[in-house]
């Protein structure tokens, strides 16, 4: 657990049905987290989960991070452990914050679209945009108010006049018409969205062909990674700093091969979501399978998520390692 910090649980609060907010006190963060950032929470051997930061307050020496956790009975155990077992006063090892969903503050206006527990990174963004006096609209989608994390906090926020709630499980549903809503958004507005796969897929469909900068999405988890015909083949990787050339067979990931040969490549989710294993590429053709890079980053062919992405079969990648 080298490089981890110890976070003390200051509070644990139910903010909706099966949604808990944790306040974590951390000493000596290397950098103050910005909206869109997340942390890895280490809950035991091989149990590491990523959680977006809802807010951050701190001084030069101590920072209090707030995260929101949906207790998912059908998940892989991390959220259940946090919600059922962790209590005030416990110490949790966490990573330094990382940001693959950074809020770009140079735009004229913003639309934030949050579905369910996808509210967590966008709540931090709404707070920052309000403090800075920026123009924004906050679209919040949920089943019911009781099941929507932080509903009362958002309802009573000083920017509540810019919030639009959509509930699909109430007596009179008011679902968001994604296509109609997006077409009405000003062309200069930048859109940030986080939520379930269905919502993000609809956003992808509606915004197809739009300028790359306009829509930023963050996924909860990676989709099942599969390679199309002709993609899942052997390739080579060269380590630029030492010249070593390694073979990556079709049945292994690039990350596995690097580890097999003693390379200390950090990783966390190993689903292509968190961005921990993203590595600089000097040259080579990449088959991108991640969910953490933006399209313009993929188009440069200069970075790769080692856990899920690959080199073109029969070719060689040169990594800055």
Kindly describe this structure:
It is built from 7 helices and 18 strands. It is α/β, with parallel strands linked by helices. The protein has 3 domains: 5-94, Translation factors (Elongation Factor Tu (Ef-tu), domain 3, Beta Barrel); 109-219, Rossmann fold; 235-319, Beta-grasp domain (Ubiquitin-like (UB roll)), CATH 3.10.20.30. The strands form 4 sheets. The chain has a 6-stranded antiparallel β-sheet with strand order 3-4-5-2-1-6. A 5-stranded parallel β-sheet has the order 9-8-7-10-11, with helices on both faces. The longest helix is centred in the middle third of the chain and has 13 residues, at 119-131. The chain is globular and about 60 Å long. The mean pLDDT is 91.
> Overall mean pLDDT score?
91
CATH architecture of the largest domain: 3-Layer(aba) Sandwich
The CATH topology label of the largest domain is Rossmann fold
Note the run of SSEs as H and E: EEEEEHEEHEHEHEHEEEHEEHEEE
Radius of gyration: 20 Å
CA-based shape: globular
Classification by helices and strands: alpha/beta
Instruction: Sketch the major β-sheet.
Output: 6 strands, antiparallel
Widest sheet, order of strands: 3-4-5-2-1-6
Number of helices: 7
Number of strands: 18
In terms of per-residue confidence, which ranges show pLDDT below 50 for 5 or more consecutive residues?
none
Question: What's the layout of helices and strands?
Answer:
Layout: E1 5-16, E2 19-27, E3 38-44, E4 47-58, E5 62-70, H1 78-84, E6 91-94, E7 109-115, H2 119-131, E8 135-142, H3 151-155, E9 163-167, H4 178-184, E10 189-195, H5 197-206, E11 215-219, E12 235-239, E13 245-248, H6 254-260, E14 278-283, E15 286-287, H7 295-300, E16 303-305, E17 310-311, E18 316-319
Parallel strand pairs: 7-8, 7-10, 8-9, 10-11, 12-18
Antiparallel strand pairs: 1-2, 1-6, 2-5, 3-4, 4-5, 12-13, 14-16, 14-18, 15-17
Helix pairs in contact: 4-5
